[in-house]
Amino acid sequence: MSDPARLMRFVLEMRQAGITDPRALAALERTPRTHYAPAHLEGLALDDVGLPLAHAQTMTKPSIVGRVVAALAAQPTDVILEIGTGSGFQAAVLSDMAHKVVTLERWRDLAADARGRFGTARLMRTYAHVADGFDGWSDDAPYDRIVLNVAVEKVPPVLFDQLKPGGVIVAPIEDASGQRLVRIRNDVREDLGPVKLGALERGVEEGGAQTT
Predict the structure, then answer these.
(1) How far apart are CA 75 and CA 77, in angstroms?
(2) What pLDDT is recorded for position 2?
(3) What value does the mean pLDDT of the chain take?
(4) Assessment of whether the complete model's pTM goes beyond 0.85
């Protein structure tokens, strides 16, 4: 993010897209999306578009990341579990706001790439693991916040087991009418509007071979 004028336009575009939470905006501004974008697409990193990753995955458009981050409302002492690492950009944004971020990715090469980016960015409390998101990650549980970057018909029960009392889950919930971004706290569900993300899939992938 070496172009201050372009960065200012990026922040303005986030505001125009409805991202008004000051902490979320500040974290987006401080986290260089160019560092997480595919090298050949760095020129598009500060546009509000999704970018293609390997294995037909997508780097989520930043306005959706902003909505999710604002909905989580992470606090400086929070430990967050993220399902679906992708490029690692959202985990990096969250690490600017929280104490620790644990992110899970089913594709080994994507997890390794994100881990390398976290290291280069010196995000020392952000950890990428290869895992099946349906199982969560019990090693660092319980979590203050859990976020799913992939759509489910219902949140896997194990994730509620790994959530602290009073904790927050944000997830895209899909039904016959489409996807809605939902925030859940104390069994109360809040509809945060429409969203469109890929579906949560079972298993761990490496070089096209699946293990479950």
Answers:
(1) 6
(2) 59
(3) 92
(4) yes
pLDDT at 38 over 50: yes
CB neighbours (10 Å) of residue 178?
12
Structural element, H or E, at residue 100: strand 100-105
Closest of 117, 119, 123 to residue 94, by C-alpha? 123
Question: 4-203 belongs to which CATH class?
Answer: alpha beta
Q: Which of 95, 97, 133 is nearest to 21 (CA)?
A: 97
Give the DSSP per-residue string, 66-128.
HHHHHHHT--TT-EEEEE--TTSHHHHHHHTTSSEEEEEESBHHHHHHHHHHHHHTT-TTEEE
Q: How far apart are CA 159 and CA 81, in angstroms?
A: 9
Please tell me the least confidently modeled range out of 162-166, 174-178, 206-210: 206-210
Q: Where are the domains of the chain?
A: 4-203
